[in-house]
Each structure stands twice: as C-alpha cells, then as structure tokens.
Amino acid sequence: MDLKNKNPRRDFLKTSALVTGGMMLSPFSIPGAYASGSDEIKIALIGCGGRGTGAAFQAFGTDQNIKLVAMADAFRDRLDDSYKALSSKIGTDKVVVTEDKKFVGFDAYKDAIAEADVVLLATPPGFRPIHFEEAIRQGKHVFMEKPVATDANGIRRVIAAAEQAKANRLNVVVGLQRRYQDNYIETIKRIEDGAIGDIVGGHVYWNGGGVWTRARTPEQTEMEYQMRNWYYFNWLCGDHITEQHVHNIDIANWIKGGYPVKAEGTGGRMVRTGLDTGEIFDHHTVRFTYADGTVIDSECRHFPGAFNKVDESFTGTKGRAYMNAGNVGKLTALDGSSLYDHDGKGNINPYQQEHNKLFAAIVKGEYLYEDATRSAMSTMTSILGRNATYSGKEISWDEAFNSKIDLMPEKFTWDAMPKVLPDDNGIYPHAIPGQTKVV
Amino acid sequence: MLLHKFVVSAIVAGSILFFNTNSSVYSEPFDPYTEEIPNTDLVFGMTPIAAGEFIMGSSSEEEGRKVDEGPQRKVAVDAFWMGTHEMTWDIFELFLNKNYEASVSQKALSPEVDGLTRPTTPYLDMTFGMGKEDKPAIGMTQYGAIQFCKWLYTKTGKFYRLPTEAEWEYAARAGASTAYFFGEDQTALADYAWFAENSEETTHKIGEKKPNPWGLYDIYGNVMEWTNDAYVPQYPEMTDVDENPQQTSEELYPRVIRGGSYVSEALDLRSSRRFASNPAWKQIDPQIPKSRWWFPEAPFLGLRVVRPLVRPTEEEIMAYYDQAPIDDY
C-alpha cells in the first residue's frame, strides 16, 4: 500500500482557492532591493524586542556586508534598548541608525522599510501580515518571524503577498528554524526517501511552563497594556498553540507533505486564572486529520510544575521517527533497530543558518527562498487547531481558512480599543468550548 | 565580530564568601539536618563537612589529568554543610514561578519572597523531556543558581550559597588523594555515578547510587554542579597553605563547574577534573540580550548548595546575593 500516492495534499497549493478573499495589493514598485555595484546590504529592523534584536545580530553574523540603517517599534524604550545593544556590540560603523531613522509608533514600519534592501519583521505576530504586505509592496527581501498571522484573514493576506514576492523574485525566509536545522533536514530527507515507509501517525508536542507576564501600570491605555502583554491576546499572539506550537505542527506538515483537512480537540484554562493572563488557553490537545486519513496528535500546554516535553515523533509503516530541537534525529525500525541517529555535534545554530542562507542568496542575486506561503499554511494549521479547541467542534480546513472573523482592532492608536476587553473585575473573556463561534 | 569575551579579567582577591567575623557562637550543632521549604512538603538534606586541609588538584601521574588541574597545593577550608543531593526541579520550580509557588504553598507568600527577582520563564522546555520529579534541576546560569540561593535564604533565613571550587573538591574527595574518592579503579564508578556508560543519555533521580564517604550522593555524574569561582587555567603557585581560596572575575565567562554529568566519560568524573562555562551554551537562545537565567544547551548542568558554619553578616550576605548581573549578547 502506498499511502503517499493517495495524498493529494502535495498539490494543495495549486488546487485550493488560496487567494480567495486575499486583498488585492496595490501596483508593485520595481524591486530595488540590493542594487548591484556595492556589496553592502542595508537592513531595517521592524520590531525591536529581544527576538528582533537577536535576528539583527544574526544578520550581522553572516559573511555579508550588512548595515542596519533603520529601526521601527511601537515603543520608544524597546527601540532604544535594542539600539544600545546593537551599536555597543556591533559598532556604529555598521549600526548606522541616526535619530531620524528611528521610527516609533504604529505606522513606523513604513518609513523604516523604505530605507532598506532587506527587512527583518519581528513584531508580535498579529502585525506580520500588514508589515509583510508593505515590505513586498516596497520590493524588499524579507526575514520574518513565525507565526505569520493570528487569524485566517491575516493568513490570506500573507499568502497573497507571498504570490507577489514570488513574482518579483524577492527572497523570504521565515523563522521556523527547524527547516534550517541539520537534524530535521537530514532525518526528514531519509523519511522522504522511504526509510520508515509511509507516515501513518504521529505526535507533536510543546509542553512547557509558560512565558513572561508584564504588570499593568496605571498610566497605560488598554491598547498599550495589551501590546506590552501581547502573548496573552489572540489578535497579537494567536494563543500559544500558534505562537509556539506552530514549530512542531510545521514539522507534521513537512513530514506529511501537506496540510490537514480537519481538526477536533480539547483545550481550556486550568492554571491561567489570574488578572494577568489575558484570554489565551493554557492547554490544547488537537487531532489533525490529513487527506490520506493519517491522524497527527498535537499537544501544547503551559502548566508550571508539570512534565514537559517539546518534540515530534511519527510512526511509519516500516519504522518510527523521533526529533527534537536539541539536534536529535532518530529513525528506528519497527523491531527497534536503529536506522539513523543524527550526529548533532558541530551542527550550525539554525537561527544563524536562516540568515546565512538568506543573505548569501541576496548577495548573489539568486532567488531561492519562498517560505511565506508554506509558513502561512502551517500557521493556518495552528489556527485550525485553536478553532477546534475554542469551539469544541470538528472544524474543516476550508471552514477555518475561509473564516471572515477578523481579530484585529478597527484602528491602531494608543487610545483605540481592541476587540477583547476586561470585565469590571479585570478578567478577560475567553473561549468556552461548545459555545464559542470561531468560523 | 567578537560577540563573546572569553578572557578572564585580572583576578581580584575575593572576600565575599569568607569573612573575618569574630563570631564563634554557633546557635546549632554541626549535624546533618533536613531543610524544609516553609509551607510546603518539600525538603532537602544538608550534610556537615568538617573544616580541614587537603591537596587540591591532581598529580602529573594521574590518568586523564589535564594541565589545568595544577599545580597541586595545600588548601584549607572552613567547615560548611553541603547539600546531600543535587537540587531538584521540585524545589527549583517554586523559585521559577511565583504564581506556582503561591499555589503550592499552604500560606500566602511573605512580602520579601513575593518581591524577589525571579527568572524569566524559559521559552523552551528546560527539562528537555527528562522529567522533574526527584530529578536535578538543570540548565540554569550561575546567576540563576545564586538567585535561587537568595530565594532559599528569604524562605529559610539560612545563608545558602554555591560551593567554592576548593570546597567542592574537598567535599568530593572526602579525604582521598586518589583520582576518585573510592580509589583509582574506574570499574567502581557505576556504583556511585550516572555517567555516559550507564545513564542512557538522561538525568536520573537523586540518590539512587551509593554516596561518597562523607555522605554526598551523585557528587560525580548525574549533573555537573555550579561553583562560585571564575575559571583560571592554572592554580596559583603557593608554598603556604591556601586558605579558603576562590577566584572572582568581572567577566561572565568562564566560570567553574565540577563533577561531570550523565554524558561524561569516566575520566571526566575525577575529583580534580574542572570544566568551564561556555557562551556557546546560549547559542540557540534567539533573544538579545541573551537570557541571564538559562543555558538552553547545558542540560548537563545543575547545582548543589552549601551553607557555611560561620554565618556572615547580613551586609555580607546581601552583597553576595546582589552581585550585579552581567549582560550577555
């Protein structure tokens, strides 16, 4: 039995109506990125938190002649901290961000993007579709962090912009860094070559203790509070199934060579009961069913004190696979004998590798990376999972993908109100399985 | 581009751990005891280690010896209690998460405990799937380990800190001058230690192996243990007894860890074997500045606390706990 041949999902992108509902982009400017004649690549950093600053360091860690020429963030203090770290460690000959190139506020991204050949997008994920569209509209190569959106509307926008990026040969690398990590690349290559037969089941996990909170301060508007605590609000974060677990879900999609057709699951809030825990769940368990009938179990949770694991394992018709971010990649035959055991020694840091590959391609004038659509589809898979746990119902891919529910605020100003607000006791409403509508 | 400084700055004569106090009145007997984490059912054991002298480092004849294990010199250490076991996640995790600590505790947290600086919650799973119950806490930085000691101090009122390198080696040797506390024969290691040959690449519950003669479990293997000291590649040449030595540094790297781990080979479990912290252990931390609390690539690194018999003054204690953290890019 060859299950692989039964799986039509490899052609999914060609056959499904991906761009339905996607916004029409304004006419494109000519890609001006990386004009020939100089080996200097000008970059702009959009989103100057710890991850954005890390991404900038990785850009400077490549072999290329990088100059950081502009920075943008909603918050001046975040931008200043990032500039200080970068300029003091990299030097002001490479970090050339004059005061007039430090852009602050919700619209800051537009001006910063205009200054650069390549942009790094690392704000909270809710803004990614808006920023990605603008970067592509302005003809820039892009590194952007995962996840790439927080709702289906955002996904459709990213996919539409990705089509334009492709048409204009703009390289796009997305920070699903397992795709750039040797143990995953080498192990999955062997799976695709048939080492453990066809994949018929699997488990992907992100079970950890939770993440940071930032206390509310009296002078903050509701918008500022949510922006500072972006992890706890769906329009900004997508819930932890999207923000973190997308990594593992993306591996399931990679292994299956496609995307699930439906999902059902259970989730809720067991320990996330305080005033500082926003609206997101603290656990999700989802069964994703793929077109060939394969079921992949997905589990993510934020329970302090509980057993943790973050990894991926799969069962094939001839063996099993196990992978994790600690450079482990093992293939085992059904009788338990080892088929492959990846040697992680000396493997390159995948966060660095993303940038090495992106900037090397750009400097050679090559068009090699079109991660955006694939990453949007994996982000969408995580949103499908969230839809399943929030609603408590079986949700099909098409229902989820075509949902018109838009989580984003009507407008972006500090005194504007996000759509989810706390009650009189300061408690935010959260989804109730069986009641909440998600599509 | 140099992102990390590997250079240890000039060694400052350290004095934060050993104090010229005149205190000679001990309020309690120098016996083993069980420390309880107040308002929980969690405990850890403390074993008295009498003051004494020993030869620190290894002789040039010792099999597997590295050049940084010398020159040998005579070292004297004052009396202290040492953790009978490596510190477990069960206890360390209370420190990690205030809400969790509050939910586990039978009483409300005191304002002092409530106000402590706590680690940022790690984005990754810092157990690496190896489990928590009765298993050693791993992957914390030296700063994180010291702040955990401060949390313990705030909870218990007792001055817990990391061992100096000299204290660690003295306690591990338990009076022996051989490569291991039980002699030279590596085949005995499996009775005392989890290491590459028997660990199956995972940490193990504390105390499953035999203790050393002074009653310390897993002093070799399972996880490496933090010391207080900066790493220097050579010990000082001394003719006199070196009393309570320790190395301080203005640099974040390298610092000394000891004892080998579940992934170490037998020769790396010797009492004199030294290891140095490495900035590469934060390579996959995607944030800048990198976490001051976590080494996402050091799942083999844990901690064991000590408590000096002579209690320093409150000022000296707080000076130890409140050393400013060093940014890591």
UniProtKB/TrEMBL annotation, chain A:
InterPro entries, per database record: Gfo/Idh/MocA-like_OxRdtase_N, Gfo/Idh/MocA_oxidrdct_glycsds, GFO_IDH_MocA-like_dom, NAD(P)-bd_dom_sf, TAT_signal
List, alphabetically, the SUPFAM superfamilies matched: Glyceraldehyde-3-phosphate dehydrogenase-like, C-terminal domain, NAD(P)-binding Rossmann-fold domains
Query: Where does the record place the GFO/IDH/MocA-like oxidoreductase domain?
Result: 189-320
Domain Gfo/Idh/MocA-like oxidoreductase N-terminal, by residue range, is 41-166
Instruction: Kindly name one Pfam family recorded for this protein.
Output: GFO_IDH_MocA_C3
The protein's name: Oxidoreductase
Species name: Echinicola rosea
The organism's taxonomy opens as:
Bacteria, Pseudomonadati, Bacteroidota, Cytophagia, Cytophagales
From TrEMBL, chain B:
Regions crossing the membrane = none
Q: Which SUPFAM superfamilies match?
A: C-type lectin-like
A Pfam family? FGE-sulfatase
Sulfatase-modifying factor enzyme-like domain: which residues?
46-281
Q: What is this protein called?
A: Sulfatase-modifying factor enzyme-like domain-containing protein
**Organism the protein comes from:** Echinicola rosea
